[in-house]
């Protein structure tokens, strides 16, 4: 047997083999990372879609339990109030401070952006702990600054009479949707016109409530729109 027949791999052959192995590993790692990134994006999309569904279901639930004042218990601003105890506990009139079941919405600036607010009375109030109060709750959706430059959509919820005694939305309201980029509401009047504000106690809206609302909510990558019919309506 000659020396040529027993020699091993040359240095060049080893280097070529190592280079090929390295290329294969880089390709496999890149493919794996792409797969993981795609999986993460799918998980994020599912999570955000679920969050949208939870938010919309919460708003729809609140609106489906809408409470508004209807004649003869309703009185326009300036008209005499109903007798005490008509809608609340004996000796207390719920109209002493105006209509506690009024519906209103405005547009406000938050960190340089314009967002809708929405406030109405609903029987879908949420109680916690030892709070056993029942009745119509004042629901108020509004956007506030979150962590860093993010913005959060919040939901204020309190029993109407307690609200009228001074409770108001605050920075402690529960966050129901984070990193919101748009929260916009338009209201349809019974005559078919659309409005980006509403006040059921204003002559500008004939002291009526809207027949439906069009809701638009978006984050960085998703936008959701829906029209919600109002279960109750007060005309002139």
What does it look like?
With about 240 residues, the chain is α+β, with helices and mostly antiparallel strands. The chain has a domain at about 45-75 and about 95-230. Helices cover about 25% and strands about 25% of the residues. The chain is built from three helices and 13 strands, in the order ααβββββββαββββββ. The protein has helices spanning about 5, 10-65, 160-165; strands at about 65, 105, 105-110, 115, 120, 135-145, 150-160, 175, 180-190, 195, 200, 210-220, 225-230. A five-stranded antiparallel sheet has the order 1-5-6-7-8. The protein has a four-stranded antiparallel sheet with strand order 10-9-12-13, with helices on one face. A hairpin with a 2-residue loop joins strand 3 (about 105-110) and strand 4. The chain starts with a helix and ends in a 7-residue tail after the last strand. The relative contact order is 0.13. Mean pLDDT is about 80; it is low at about 80-95 and about 160-165.
Q: Report the structural category.
A: alpha+beta
Helical stretch count?
Answer: 3
Distance between the termini: 112 Å
Radius of gyration, CA atoms, in whole angstroms: 30 Å
Q: Pick out the low-confidence regions.
A: 82-97, 161-166
| Structural shape | rod-shaped
Structure characteristics:
single chain; 236 residues; alpha+beta; 5-stranded antiparallel beta sheet; 4-stranded antiparallel beta sheet
């Amino acid at each position: 047997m000659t020396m040529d027949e027993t020699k091993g791999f040359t240095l060049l052959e080893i280097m070529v083999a190592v280079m090929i192995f390295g290329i294969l590993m880089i390709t496999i790692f890149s493919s794996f990372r792409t797969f993981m990134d795609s999986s993460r994006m799918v998980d994020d999309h599912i999570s955000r879609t679920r969050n949208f569904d939870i938010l919309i279901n919460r708003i729809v639930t609140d609106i489906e339990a809408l409470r508004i004042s209807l004649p003869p218990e309703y009185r326009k601003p300036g008209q005499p109030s109903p007798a005490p105890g008509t809608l609340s506990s004996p000796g207390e009139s719920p109209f002493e401070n105006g209509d506690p079941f009024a519906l209103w919405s405005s547009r406000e600036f938050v960190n340089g952006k314009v967002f809708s607010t929405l406030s109405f009375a609903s029987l879908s109030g949420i109680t916690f702990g030892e709070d056993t109060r029942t009745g119509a709750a004042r629901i108020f959706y509004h956007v506030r600054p979150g962590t860093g430059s993010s913005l959060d959509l919040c939901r204020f919820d309190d029993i109407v009479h307690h609200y009228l005694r001074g409770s108001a939305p605050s920075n402690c309201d529960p966050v129901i949707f984070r990193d919101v980029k748009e929260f916009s509401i338009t209201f349809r009047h019974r005559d078919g016109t659309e409005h980006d504000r509403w006040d059921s106690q204003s002559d500008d809206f004939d002291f009526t409530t809207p027949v439906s609302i069009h809701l638009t909510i978006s984050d960085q990558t998703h936008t959701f729109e829906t029209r919600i019919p109002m279960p109750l309506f007060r005309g002139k």
